[in-house]
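Q: What would this chain look like folded?
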Amino acid sequence: MQKQFLKYCSKIGLNQQSTVLLAVSGGLDSMALLHLLHSCNFEISAAHCNFNLRAKESDADQEFVKSVCKDLGIPFYTKNFDTNSVAHSQGISIQMAARDIRYHWFEELRAANNFDFIATAHHQDDQIETLLINLTRGTGIKGMHGILAKQNFLLRPLLFTDRNALLSWMNNNNFDFREDQSNASLKYTRNKIRHKVLPVLKEINPSLTTTMQENAERFFGSENNLNFFYERDKSKLIKNIDNQFHFDLKLIQEYPAPVDLLFYFLSEYDFQDWKAIENLLVSDTGKIISSKSHQLLKNRDSLILNKIETTDTNEYLIREELSTIVSPLNLTFKSSSLENFKFSRSASLAALDFDCLQFPLLLRKWKNGDVFQPLGMKGKKKLSDFFIDQKLSIFDKSNTWVLCSGSKIVWIVGLRIDERFKLVENSQKVYLVELNK
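A: My prediction, written as structure tokens:
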């Protein structure tokens, strides 16, 4: 066992010079990893979470791990958690709360003590269970890599073996461990798979644990190759325009599986609904789907990704002496004589007739019913119609601000000034407003 263990540790980048924080529950798996690391002369410390979910049994686990570490001379960390309260306050399951708690605490310990790695005792049976759970719930190729042997600071040095081999090694060496009775409960999905599904699959393939671990590694290789090509093409598929990501649907739909491509890029923005993304591709312009943090808009031949932000309904007074603001927009203000003025066609610069303005000016979001007289036109136009002419997306419309003088709009910021406030032949003074992007 030790020879196989050392060989696998070397494969995943763990050596005797590394400092390791080991997660130890007191059960078979973590105690086997503790004794393997200790017997192979690794520099380890142990961390035990008391989740207070099994009354006296939880306390007994804590004392057991503490006693073993003391006998072996292994530095020991432990912490008690009110897991039920955390789960209730966050609206998540007990299992999810316990997972979040322990990994957060382990990372705190690692960073505070400069450990090279955190090690957990996941093995090949855990790998099979994870793969089957992912498949049952629905997953893409990412879910098929299962538990990774190495992920940043996190290592799983037992993925070379299975539970039966660990049990045999522990018994042969007379090493103690504690049984968690909840592992036998069929109310948990993982236990149903462990006790009901895996025995049948192992009848079909007695080497199932090894086969599934090899499958997971192959899937991970395929995933990495696919990601390599996706990242290579990213710059031509996605453009950052005014802090919005525009996905070119014409190019994306040239791929054999466009939904898979989109799902890859969108998953980091909390989009998890594969079917919703697939439906968006064939929907009409204006359709929006949302994640917790972002919105995704179908806009003609593009998808536009926009971060969800609180709508600013405030109104801002712009006094005559004001020279700049940075919120809600980055604007600069300047007045000068026409002698020093050089005309610019930039949409980010509004050149207004100073004598036509009534201070203080007002900066606000546009509203339904707003009208103005677009530069170059004789009649008035609704802003909503102007936006259609400009082919503005829903996101662009919602982020549009207007600068007003009294009750009149003088500039749709970054788009068009009002005809009534333009410079004319007898203008004496220019008022410049510039949008700094």
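The longest strand covers residues 43-50.
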